[in-house]
Design goal:
The protein is of the alpha/beta class. It is 30% helix and 25% strand. The strands form four sheets. The chain has a six-stranded parallel sheet. A five-stranded parallel sheet has the order 1-4-5-6-7, with helices on both faces. Strands 2-3 form a two-stranded antiparallel ribbon. Helix 1 crosses helix 8.
Length: 305
C-alpha cells in the first residue's frame, strides 16, 4: 500500500482553502506553491517540496481561464519533475454546460476541449464532483483513469439537518430529475420537476409545477446556481402551487452577476451549497458545507490502489 506521507498535495491558488481541508483530513501537510508575478504579467511557480518519485495530488477548480491554466502548469510541472503519480481533483469544472455543439453551429464545445487539455497534460487519475454532464469523463483515449463522485451523502445529511417534517424535492427541469429522484429515494420523500424552456444563453422560463408541493416545504435541488433565474422562478412556482416555504440546495455556488441580490429579495428561506466553487463562504444567505471528506475518501482509495 502506498503511504499518504509519500504524497505531496498542492492546489491552484483559487482552490487553496479547500485543498488545506483535504490535507488536514488526510493527515498530510499541505504544500503551498511558490508563486511570483513578473511586471509583464508572466507567472512563476515552483514546488515547495521534493516531487521526484512521490505521489502528487493537485486540487484545482477551473472556474476561470487563469485557474485552468494554472492547473495545467501544475500537472505538467509534476511530470517535468518526475512525480511517480499525479492525481487531480477538479471540484468545479468550468465550461461544464458546454459539453456539446449544435450541428452546423460552429460552436466550440469547451466543456470537452478544455477537459481534453487537462487529460493531455498526462495525469494518472482525475476526479470530478457533481458534473453537469458525464460526457467529459470520456474525452480521452483511454489512458487516463477518471472518477465522478456525487455529493449525495453530504446532501442527504444537510437536508436531514433542516429538521423538516414534511417536504418534497423539486428539480428545476427534467434533465436533473433523475438525480433528484435518487435523493428522494434515499430520503423517502416525494419529488417532482418543473418545465423549463431556455430561450437565450442565461434566460429561461419555468412553467407550472405539480400540486404535490401543496402544504409542504419545497427543496429545489440543482447541480449549480449561476444567475439564479430558473431556480428563483421554480421557487415562485412552488409557492404559487401552495408550498409552505422554499429552500434551495445546489452543489456549485457560482452566483454570477447580481444573483446574490436576487436571492436576498426572493422568498427563499435559505440557500445551501458546497465549497467546490472558490471564494464561497457562509453568510446571511448561504450555508456552505465542505466536500473535503468525499475527496479524502476517493484519494485514500487511489493511494491504496
Amino acid at each position: 500500500m502506498k503511504k499518504p506521507d509519500r504524497s505531496v498535495l498542492v492546489a491552484n491558488e483559487a482552490s487553496t482553502p479547500l485543498a488545506r481541508k483535504v490535507a488536514d483530513d488526510l493527515g498530510i501537510e499541505f504544500s503551498e506553491m511558490i508563486r511570483k508575478r513578473f511586471s509583464d504579467g508572466e507567472r512563476y511557480h515552483a514546488f515547495p517540496a521534493e516531487i521526484n518519485q512521490r505521489d502528487l495530488i493537485v486540487v484545482g477548480a477551473t472556474h476561470d481561464d487563469s485557474s485552468h491554466q494554472e492547473l495545467l502548469d501544475l500537472i505538467q510541472g509534476g511530470r517535468f519533475w518526475n512525480a511517480a503519480t499525479i492525481s487531480v481533483v477538479i471540484p468545479y469544472l468550468g465550461y461544464s454546460t458546454m459539453e456539446r455543439a449544435k450541428p452546423g453551429s460552429r460552436e466550440i464545445p469547451k466543456g470537452i476541449t478544455r477537459t481534453r487539455q487537462i487529460y493531455r497534460a498526462s495525469p494518472n487519475f482525475v476526479v470530478f464532483i457533481d458534473l453537469h454532464s458525464e460526457s467529459v469523463l470520456h474525452a480521452h483515449t483511454g489512458e487516463i483513469r477518471t472518477r465522478h463522485i456525487w455529493t449525495d451523502q453530504l446532501v442527504v445529511e444537510k437536508i436531514r439537518e433542516l429538521g423538516l417534517a414534511d417536504f418534497v424535492l423539486v428539480s428545476p427541469d427534467y434533465g436533473y430529475s433523475k438525480r433528484v429522484a435518487r435523493l428522494a429515494s434515499i430520503l423517502d420523500c416525494p419529488h417532482t420537476a418543473a418545465d423549463k424552456d431556455r430561450y437565450d444563453t442565461d434566460k429561461t422560463i419555468v412553467g407550472q409545477i405539480s400540486s404535490v408541493v401543496r402544504g409542504r416545504s419545497a427543496i429545489v435541488c440543482d447541480d449549480m446556481i449561476r444567475t439564479g433565474g430558473s431556480i428563483i422562478q421554480t421557487a415562485n412556482r412552488c409557492l404559487d402551487a401552495g408550498a409552505r416555504e422554499v429552500y434551495v440546495l445546489a452543489t456549485h455556488l457560482v452566483l454570477s452577476g447580481n444573483a446574490r441580490e436576487r436571492f436576498k429579495q426572493s422568498e427563499i428561506v435559505k440557500v445551501i451549497g458546497s465549497d467546490t466553487y472558490p471564494g464561497v463562504d457562509d453568510d446571511e444567505l448561504l450555508e456552505v458545507y465542505s466536500v473535503a471528506p468525499l475527496i479524502k475518501k476517493v484519494l485514500l482509495s487511489q493511494l491504496s490502489a
